[in-house]
Amino acid sequence: MPTTQTDETLSVITPANIDWQTDDTGNKVPVSGEFGDVYFSHADGLAETRHVFLTHNQLPERLSKLAPQQSFTIAELGFGTGLNLLATWLLWRQLRRTHPHLATARLHFITTEKHPIPLADLTKILALWGQRAPELTELITPFLDAYPPLVAGCHRLNFFADNLTVDLWFGDAASSLTKLSLDKSSEPAPFVDAWFLDGFAPSCNSTLWAENIFAQVQRLSRPSTTAATYSCAGVVKRALRASGFEISKVKGFGRKREMLTAVMTNATCSENNRSKPDIASDAIGVDSSDRAILSESHSVVIGAGVSGLFAAWSLANRGVQVTLVDKSAPLAGASGNPRALLAPKMTPIHHVDEHLHTIGYLYSSRVYRQFNDMAKVANILPIIESTGALDLLMKANIGTEQIADYPNDMATTLPLEEARSLSGLKEQDLATNLYLPHAGLINPQTLKQIILLHPLICCQQLHVDSIDETETQVLIRGVDKNKSALTINADNVVICAAFESHDIDERIFDCRKIRGQLSWFTPTTEQLAHLPKIPLKYSGYCTLFTAQTSDDSFDNEAAHQPQFLLGASFIRNDTDTQIRHEEHQISRDKLVTAIPEMSAIIPTDTSLWQGRAGVRTQTPDYHPIVGRLNDSKRMWVMSAMGAKGYALAPICADALVDMITGTFAPLSEAMLARLSPTRTRLQTPLV
Prior knowledge:
Layout: H1 7-10, E1 18-22, E2 28-32, H2 45-54, H3 59-64, E3 71-77, H4 83-98, E4 106-113, H5 119-132, H6 137-146, E5 153-159, E6 164-170, H7 173-179, E7 194-197, H8 211-219, E8 226-229, H9 234-242, E9 245-251, E10 258-264, E11 298-302, H10 306-316, E12 321-326, E13 340-342, H11 356-377, E14 384-386, E15 389-391, H12 400-403, H13 416-423, E16 434-436, E17 440-442, H14 444-452, E18 457-469, E19 474-480, E20 485-490, E21 492-495, H15 501-504, E22 512-521, H16 525-530, E23 536-537, E24 541-546, E25 562-567, E26 571-572, H17 581-594, E27 610-618, E28 625-628, E29 635-639, H18 645-661, H19 669-675
Parallel strand pairs: 3-4, 3-7, 4-6, 7-8, 11-12, 11-21, 12-18, 15-23, 21-29
Antiparallel strand pairs: 1-2, 5-6, 8-10, 9-10, 13-17, 14-17, 15-16, 18-19, 19-20, 22-25, 22-26, 22-27, 23-24, 24-25, 28-29
Helix pairs in contact: 2-4, 7-8, 10-14, 10-18, 11-18
């Protein structure tokens, strides 16, 4: 009886097993242990990539003709060693240097890999390429720095300086392509401009050349989409023809006599893209009427908490002029705490590819590390302090056996003595624990500084009174900081006003309002010696941090002194933000109940403690609200992050801007449906 792969097995990654052979020039080359095929030509893999995929998708000509602020999407089957990406990236960088009009154009590279190569092996492979092709060296380092843990799902890597977005989909290729969302109801809809069909040979790995793969190639393409492959196998030719492509045989690379190029034609265009403008099959180029052009576009983002900041950032990085407005000031609401702990609530690994918190954590941690590099150049303090974090698993849906399924560099259980040494806890039972090596503390104020440095973001105070949408624009009317009436015109509006979003537009679900108060105090030298050394998660969380002069909550006297932060309280249906001393006590009680040895360390007198209260916004299904508002063309919402804004806002903002600009999001179609403002769960008001 034939076996079938379940969704659960598809969601667990088996890393590539690398063997090594000697090529025609005496160099060592990697070979797939799973499929017994080479990752690239024994003759010259880089030259083969340029010949097959760059030249025969006509990328030098097509990319050079992109209009300002236009996007071009490449999709690849078989990521392998990343050589195709690096060659494409290098071409893109060279074109942008010689074609000034490409300064605001964007390249989107989507790729799939069922058996990704472990970082150590990939580092070795790419080091060899750095020796053979030194021009790749300046790209290899940032790529390896961004290379994700080997868990299923989409891993978005943004290389901001090059206007390059890479979506690495780890897992079965057909399943990954199926998850790419095509919203047929709205324009512009995303599509692939060029395909790199680079799986192992059909005789070695037939699954990458199967009908279900080419059904997705057809679904995601449109007239004038091109494809190129080194293979001339009959199964490939038949599949491309059946999918609506005209094929041509051309000279192959090296000793290979022939290869295939293909272009999708109008007559056999996929049903999803049949409404696209006609483009002759022999005119393979970039038609600016066919892809969203954002020239001179202007968006308004309402609300300057973490959601609004990232919505503004993602829009600005697509070349959109953004006016970010807030009724008081950036980070004045729940997002403005002294520090935020970036540490995910883990899920069993077979759910990870659809677990928004894990996806968001991995993406945001990469973004914050990139922000640290920007902050260093701008002479700003770091955005994220890499601390690691220890979860005591008191409020978790995962145990140590399930933690063992994860790569150790993402999540692991520490031996008892190591956990005690790292945490500083001496009496706590730490036999079960979850250590998150890449967790860290976010400094919201320095994050705000970096984002507001973007030249396309303008921030101003505005109390919004009304919003009127017409066919061609949106009018936002309100009162500015001088109490003067002000009207702003915009092409799009994104509402990120947390629990007040419903007041601005009643189409946005009226969420739960949950008051949360963080508490902190300045420990004595003796207390400091016995407090936890790294952030701890229990039914709350606690951490040491050092106050900075840029922190709004501290004066110059407190700056550079250690603080111990704990919390947060959780009070439903309460929007008051005054500090309450009884909630200091609640947070203390929660900590000492979870970690009894802290009862002798944490002061019982909380009268000198400081605090900050905010109002979290939460939906009934605990998912954020991200997407276009019902019966609207130009109004969008990104809200209801709960207590996870610093983990979720970066990925949700990118997904939202992908929807606005008509490009593929880094979230599955099912996940986008779970975030939709019009989802079924939000049709019944809270009682």
